Structures are given as structure tokens and as C-alpha cells.
UniProtKB/TrEMBL annotation:
The keyword Isomerase applies. The keyword Isomerase applies. This is UDP-N-acetylglucosamine 2-epimerase (non-hydrolyzing). It is an enzyme of class 5 (isomerase). InterPro entries: UDP_GlcNAc_Epimerase_2_dom, WecB-like. It comes from the Bacteria.
């Protein structure tokens, strides 16, 4: 039966699309889940944790794959999937190479595309690279745009996207957060998390994640220098989440191994990560999703980037851009550690990313669109 083909390939896409897949399944809508496997172990960890076995797994990942290499290998594979599955619609998320290629293949096969987390822009085609280009290109292809906030919707309208095709839904990361925190398995601390938290007793805990391409090399060296300085205070403990990409974890391992009050955490699972985040006094991160999750948990965010596509968090006061220079990271972290009022202000900021029902809203809109999609498919035969 002509269904919706949901395509993702990375950990964050899986985390944010699973709430939509579950909402579609609750509506008994035909859904085919295709993962490209752009990520591997951290993606599998999310799928296993959610009890979701993809219908199709392209297992495309290669070590040190470049975006252009990935595109070249994905284009024929995803075209073949769509020719065989003949979906009435393709659904993608965000800004990854997987999302872009799936949208391009659908466009050439005249299959309509829905875009979850639409309208995020940094305003700089080079930052982040290639995500800014990817998400702008998907916006040019999609005919359903699920914007997480009113700001993202305005960005799309300013780019000439018809208002009738834009739906403000909230970010599905909030749905995922609510789901994991109400999951009975969430209450059990894994050994890794237990050990980390035990080592932080009596100290304030700072969580750190950094994986973005623009921070590879010099950026990570500066971040590691800042971490060593912060750890030397002696009144804080740090948990450093190590992304599986060697370009993202090798410099941190080298520079931080054996550093007192620093726990190196090899890619914590999503439930463990959320548990660590919820106990943190503050988080230092270049992640996109963590800029949404931390404020949802009342944890101040210092963003290790020079730009962000999440200005809502900056404007609300929940997050602050600090870049990747060691002295700035140190100064801003010390301010939050030594000024309780500054910390309290960030902690109490209003939350701009939705109410945890984005997946339901998206599924409802897709259901109302289904008849038109199917008749388009029939006309295409
Ligand atoms: C330019 C940009 O910002 N693009 C982003 C990028 O995603 P990202 O930057 O959010 O990527 P990560 O930080 O890797 O993933 C984060 C998720 O992983 C969980 N997590 C984290 C560390 C860990 O040790 N264990 C975990 O489980 C964490 O809770 C969270 O849910 O692409 C997405 C897809 O299009 C976009 O949506 C998103 O804009």
C-alpha cells in the first residue's frame, strides 16, 4: 500500500523522527522506515533503545566519509529504494547529507517531500558546512514544512515559501525527551553513568559534547585547553562525551587523558546522556539538539560555536554563544559557576521549542494530506 517513506541516517535524525514514526503508526498509516546508516553504532543504539527495526538499512557508512562521497554513493541507492517502494510521500529531517539526498531523489521521481525541523538558518552558508546549504536546498524541494518555532516559520516565509505549506509544530526533540524520561528503563543508571556521577560527588557537574566539523583540529584543542583549566579549579567535575568520529574524539582523548576531575565518556547512549544532562550544572556543547534539550531540563547552555540556527535559545537567555576560544569558554563558564544569579537567570529562561506533541501534529497533517498524495501517486503510474 502506498505509504510514507521516512528516511534518516544519523543519531539525531533518528531521535527526532521516531516520535513521528510512532504517531503515524498509531494512526495505522502505512510507514516504511529507511535508514541509510550514515552513522552506525550510535544510530543503532538509538534504534535498539526505541525498539525500532528499520525496514530498509543501506549500511552506507565508510570511515572518514566526506559529504560528497556519501552523496555519490547514496543517490543511486535511495533512487532504487524509492522506485521499488513507490511511496506517496518521503519524510526527512533537518540538515544531513542523508536528508538532502533523499529529498533530491524524491524530487526527480516527483514524490512530494515533508521536511521536519524546517526553517533553521544560521545565515552563513559556510557555518555550519554543509548543513546550512543542505537545509536551504531541502526547503526548495519540500511542499510540507514542519517548523519547530514561529521564528523558523518566518524565515521560510521570508524565503518565499507559501505560508499554507508551513506548519509550526514544536521540535520533536521535546517529544523524545518526554518519552525517554517516562520510560521505566530510564530509571536504571547504567554502570558508566553511575561511575561518572559517583566521581562528581560534592562537586558541580559540567557536561561537554563537541563533534562539529568546524571545531575539528584547532577548535577541539582550544576546547580541551579550556576543560583542563576548568577542571583545575577543583570544585567541579566534567563529563566529556566522546563522539565515535575519530576527528571529533582523538584530540580530546590525547589532551585530557589522566586529567583530574575529567571523565571521558565514550558516546553515552541517549538515555544515559539525558540522565547526565539532567544532573549537570551547565553544559558546554556545539550540538544542535542539546541546545533544545538542555533548556527543557533547566540546564544553562554555553554553545561552542560562533553562530547558531537556534536564536530562540539565545534570545530567551537559556543559551549563550561562546565560540571555541579557550579564554572565552573559561570566562563564561567561571561566570556561571561564581555568579549564582547569572546561573539562576539562565536556568529560569522561557522554553521556546514546544510542548512535546510535535510528532502528533506532524502525523495529523500528513494524514490530512494523504488523499492528495495518493491521487498524485496514481496519476504518476
Ligand atoms: C547544524 C546542526 O546543529 N545540526 C544538528 C545535527 O544534530 P546534532 O548537532 O544535534 O547532533 P548530535 O549532537 O550528535 O546529536 C544530538 C542528539 O544525540 C544525543 N546524544 C548526544 C551526545 C551523546 O553522547 N549521546 C547522545 O545520545 C542528544 O541527546 C541529542 O538528542 O543534525 C541534526 C539532524 O538533521 C539536526 O537536527 C541538528 O540541527
Amino acid at each position: 500500500m502506498a505509504g510514507i517513506l521516512v528516511v534518516f541516517g544519523t543519531r539525531p535524525e533518528a531521535i527526532k523522527l521516531i516520535p513521528v514514526v510512532r504517531a503515524l503508526q498509531r494512526r495505522r498509516m502505512a510507514v516504511t522506515v529507511c535508514t541509510t546508516g550514515q552513522h552506525r553504532e550510535i544510530l543503532d543504539s538509538v534504534l535498539h533503545g526505541a525498539g525500532l527495526a528499520p525496514d530498509i538499512d543501506l549500511a552506507i557508512m565508510r570511515d572518514d566519509q566526506s559529504p560528497i562521497d556519501l552523496m555519490a554513493r547514496l543517490l543511486p541507492r535511495l533512487t532504487k529504494v524509492m522506485e521499488e517502494e513507490r511511496p506517496c510521500r518521503v519524510l526527512v529531517h533537518g540538515d544531513t547529507t542523508t536528508a538532502l539526498v533523499a529529498a533530491i531523489c524524491a524530487y526527480h521521481l516527483e514524490i512530494p517531500v515533508g521536511h521536519v525541523e524546517a526553517g533553521l538558518r544560521s545565515g552563513d552558508n559556510r557555518q555550519p558546512w554543509p548543513e546550512e546549504f543542505n537545509r536551504k536546498s531541502i526547503s526548495a524541494i519540500a511542499d510540507l514544512h514542519f517548523a519547530p518555532t514561529a521564528h523558523a516559520a518566518k524565515v521560510l516565509e521570508a524565503e518565499g515559501i507559501p505560508s499554507a505549506s508551513i506548519h509550526v509544530t514544536g521540535n520533536t526533540s521535546v517529544d523524545a525527551l518526554h518519552a525517554i524520561r517516562s520510560d521505566p528503563r530510564y530509571s536504571g543508571l547504567s554502570l558508566g553513568v553511575r561511575a561518572t556521577l559517583a566521581s562528581t560527588l560534592g562537586k558541580r557537574f559540567i557536561l561537554v559534547t563537541c563533534h562539529r566539523r568546524e571545531n575539528h583540529g584547532r577548535g577541539l584543542a582550544q576546547i580541551a585547553t579550556a576543560i583542563r583549566a576548568i577542571a583545575s579549579r577543583g570544585d567541579v567535575a566534567l563529563g566529556i562525551c566522546l563522539h565515535p568520529n575519530p576527528n571529533a574524539h582523538a584530540p580530546l582523548r590525547t589532551m585530557l587523558r589522566g586529567c583530574e576531575h575529567v571523565n571521558l565518556l565514550p558516546a553515552p547512549t541517549y538515555p544515559d546522556f539525558i540522565k547526565l544532562l539532567s544532573t549537570a550544572h551547565l553544559v558546554l556543547t556545539d550540538s544542535g539538539g542539546v541546545q533544545e534539550e538542555a533548556p527543557a531540563l533547566g540546564v544553562p547552555v554555553l554553545v561552542l560555536r560562533n553562530t547558531t540556527e537556534r536564536p530562540e535559545g539565545i534570545e530567551s537567555g537559556a543559551a549563550r554563544l561562546v565560540g571555541s576560544q579557550a579564554e572565552t569558554i573559561i570566562a563564561e563558564t567561571y561566570r556561571l559557576l561564581d555568579d549564582p544569579l547569572a546561573h539562576a537567570r539562565m536556568k529560569r529562561s522561557p522554553f521556546p521549542y514546544g510542548d512535546g506533541r510535535a510528532g502528533e501534529r506532524i502525523a495529523s497533517i500528513l494524514a490530512s494530506q494523504r488523499e492528495a498524495d495518493v491521487s498524485l501517486l496514481t496519476a504518476r503510474r
